[in-house]
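Quick illustration for those who missed Monday's session on complexes.
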Amino acid sequence: MSDRVMWFNGACVPWEDARVHVWDELALRGANVFEGITAFWNADEQRHEVLAGDAHLDRLYDSARVADIPAPMTRAEVFGALAEVASQLGGSDIYVRPTFYAKRGRSALAPDSEGAMYIGGFPFRPSVPQAVRAIVSSHRRFGGPIGPHAKSGGSYLDFRVFERERVEHEVEHVFFLNDRGHVAEADGAAILLVRDRRVITPSVDTGVLDSITKRIVLDLARGLGYEVEERPVLRDELYRAQVVLAGTLLGLRTVHSVDGRTVGDTGGAETAATLAAEYGRLCRGENPLASACLAPLR
Ligand SMILES: Cc1ncc(COP(=O)(O)O)c(C=O)c1O
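Prediction with pyridoxal-5'-phosphate bound:
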């Protein structure tokens, strides 16, 4: 059992041996797209069950198309490599991060264009902070030709600025607004607002990554008879709802304050708790929706 595994262009290698050249497009222009994926250990079956694996690979290939990075492998080969990483990590829940990157070629049309791939893998032990405080960043996020729908390393450069604000304000999360001042997303998570039995989330046209965890939670919410609204969200709505974050690494995380204002006495706590419990059950195959989301990784 290892505490980190690296698969690099064809095989698992010692972590230190996964090297790229500084003149690779990966380093020169940040040309990479990636996914963060979880797989849960099923002790009865002695295998990993990957959560929404097809949706993650769809998004990986879509991101590569948008960022014009040639996909280096077929889906079956990517799943095979993920299974190799999973078997090296052994019998625990795991987080795997496949990345496609451009080695050479300023676009996929360049004659010397070449795509490549690596996967980092780790045991998955989500942290559960006692209180989750968030602020809204003083910076707004603008979309470029690649934009936030593609999960590209280049677009995550913005997050260095958000992370600095997060540390300076001594909070757990930073939310950011889009160029029109609407709520977009958080660092590493989609934002959901829960009011009574209503779940509201910024629509994809407000410039957010179309979070796979959020999609699963919205399906759970509909199944439980809650109302779901996807629409532009105003900043002040954050102060008038139970705010919940959704992301592969975080799972579902309840937010206790935004911009120093305590949220949570706004009538959504019970709904948020039910959704978190059902999401946890789904990851263990104990919710009926699990059959559509979990698949053996092998
Ligand atoms: C900016 C951003 N938004 C949302 C998410 C959540 O997306 P997902 O649920 O697909 O992990 C992430 C997670 O990687 C993210 O980085």
